[in-house]
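Incident log, structure service

09:12 report received: a user says their structure output differs between two submissions of the same chain.
09:20 pulled the input from the user's history:
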Amino acid sequence: MSTMSRGGGGGGGLNSYYASADAFVLVRRPHPYLEFAMPIKIFEAIGHGLPLIANEGSLAAKFIHTENIGWVVRDALDLRRFLLHLLAHPGELGDKLKSVRLSQEHHSWVARARQVARTLSCRAF
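09:34 re-ran on a clean worker, output below:
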């Protein structure tokens, strides 16, 4: 199983990390902001076809669970346990990869732009 580093400097430099990763892990300390906002990197990871792993207590975790595009862990210790489980059961990764591919068309930048256009056209003056 490949991992992706924390840094990377942003921009196109992350493409090689996305291409070599098997999953995108977003485990952060709980913060009220994360209860209603999600990092853009989540949608980049979906665009690259990566299943997501996040910790409980965030909007990202709810999104991952609802969309069935990854897994939710309790904390860093649970993440370790889960990654060991995933190494022993790689078929589970394949199942989530299929779910992510199916969800990509709904969570692309084009799909988001269409959603904004629909929302704004309904509220036109």
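09:41 both user submissions now match this output. Likely a transient worker issue. Closing.
09:42 reviewer note: The radius of gyration is 16 Å. Residues 69 and 100 are 5 Å apart (CA to CA).
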